[in-house]
Amino acid sequence: MMEKVRHLTIDELLALRDGEGTAFARSHAESCHACRRELERLYQIQARLRALPTFEPPRDLWPRVASGVSRKRLRRRVGYGVLGLAAAATLAALVVRHGPNARETPAGPSDVWVAEAESPDLGPFIHRSAELESILRAYRPAYQVYNAPTALAVSFLEDRIVLLDRVLLEGRAAGADREVLVDLWGERVEAMETLVGLHAVQEERLWR
Amino acid sequence: MKNYASVLAGAEVTRARAGDREALETVYRAFQAPVYNLGRRICGNEEDAEDVLQETFLEVCRSIRGFRGEGSLWGWVRRVAVSKALMLLRRERGRAARTVGGDSFSLDALGAPPPEPTGPIDLEAALGRLSPVSRAVLWLHDVEGYTHEEIGEMLGKTASFSKSQLSRAHRRLREWLE
Fold this sequence. Notes:
The complex is a heterodimer. Chain A is mainly alpha-helical. Chain A has helices spanning 10-17, 23-31, 33-50, 62-83, 85-98, 123-139, 148-173, 178-207. The termini of chain A are far apart. By secondary structure, chain B is mainly α. Chain B has helices at 10-17, 21-43, 46-63, 73-100, 123-129, 132-143, 148-155, 159-177. Chain B is elongated, with a radius of gyration of 18 Å. Chain B starts with 9 loop residues before the first helix and ends with a helix.
């Protein structure tokens, strides 16, 4: 009586195609024409899938993405500033306790960072910060006409930046890990971008 | 597959990490097509693919500071895109599952299945007929090159689940493409 041939299952053939087949599957495929043909078919389908045409986005979504990012940043920071009054008070107390003046506006990071301006990890943050500072300087004259909630948010962000500058300086002096400094610089840039965003919104309202 | 990692210079990635708007836009322009294509292939329609594209880049812009350069930027962006596409799939199937019972990735066909084709169909049409989960697994494994372990993890399932979905997809393709 002839023994019935057991062909490879699709699972075994797929494993074989992906280089994970068993010794039995490998040896069977070498001697079985039908299974070799099935294996070849699986290779061909994979090649055809990879050769399918690429779909292109039907329209430019970048403006939506960019405005979505700005809105989220603004919401997060302003929400943080207005709702997190306790946090704001703590920050303010820290600033008062640590500094000679009751309130400071960010004067820009200390000169000690100039030496780091070309470093690959901190450099981009330092340059971006400088760009944002020059934008902020143009907005400051209009600051006094802002409404109370905006003024509070601006004040909170400025205090936060002043505090971040101090922490950055102290961290650098204490030899903090570079990744920590990168994160703090990232925080500073983010706070400044939010500040610029707030000023931009106010400016738009004033001119409307 | 095109090597998208080479599209961007290292300096642009560093600027993007610092939140530079122009550099972020460069990242978007470099990867919008492969991300959209991935979304379109996994979700199977234009509208969902646009959602995947938008959600992916909102996440990329928010989180790129955390990208430490371990592996390629495209590998990282692609992982975000796959996660967004699968989340969308899970959300839509979860909605359907709540109405019929079951979990979002175990229901292979909800409602009346489309009638079987009377003759051979082309690959594009066959892909469109696969269940969303089988199609996602097929694409992620056979085209994007993810392992069954990675796919299982991304789906919140096991590697065996991914393997069985791939086998199922190939069985169906075999019937339809013959």
